[in-house]
Amino acid sequence: TDSRATVAATLAPDKVLIVYLSRTNNIKAIAEIIHKHVGGKLVALELVTPYPQDYRTTVEQVARENETGFLPALKTKIDSIQQYDVVFVGFPTWGMQLPPPVKSFLRQNDLSGKTVIPFNSNAGYGVGSSFQTVKELCPDSKILEGFTTKGGVERDGQYLVIKGQRADEVKREVKKWLQKLNVI
Ligand SMILES: Cc1cc2nc3c(=O)[nH]c(=O)nc-3n(C[C@H](O)[C@H](O)[C@H](O)COP(=O)(O)O)c2cc1C
């Protein structure tokens, strides 16, 4: 697309990694919007042992994992992370924190010297400590201003909401943010 061609001059697409965790696909939708603008490699984080389907059980498991600092094993392996200069990291807010699998990802992959750009969606309670934790887990990276927007409310049976009109709105928000960061 045109926007992608324009971006090529700013960010070399082969230097961009977009990695994300998404359970009900809101973050996936945002990741795809970012990808349309900057290109690069788009990777969904998958777990060796996926979380349960049931929302409440998952909330309880995540709370325990956050308490104990448990880092779930990832099925997704990034080959040669060194090849990337810019890493977008996308995640929902879980228990007002960075989801454990994203903690696993940042622990297991050395992003020092790279530009790290977080993006988030949540049920309306904000990013919590998640952006701060990204900073703490990437002490030697350049962290740019993150993006956040309201996603679904799984508790109330509201799953993917970034579709239709809401997707158009989020597309505009994402574009504005990327322009502000000077990456497009
Ligand atoms: C285990 C779990 C915990 C959550 N905790 C929060 C929270 O603390 N604050 C909040 O605003 N939303 C919370 N949510 C809602 C998600 O952040 C929100 O639905 C988000 O848009 C989901 O993104 P996804 O569709 O990419 O999975 C939680 C969802 C799950 C599954």
UniProtKB/TrEMBL annotation:
Entry-linked Pfam families: Flavodoxin_4
Lineage, uppermost ranks: Bacteria, Pseudomonadati, Bacteroidota, Cytophagia, Cytophagales
Species in which this protein is naturally found: Spirosoma montaniterrae
Domain Flavodoxin-like, residue spans: 16-182
Keyword ATP-binding appears in the UniProt entry: no
SUPFAM superfamilies from the UniProt entry: Flavoproteins
InterPro entries: Flavodoxin/NO_synth, Flavoprotein-like_sf
Protein keywords: Signal
Name of the featured protein: Flavodoxin
GO molecular function, one term: FMN binding
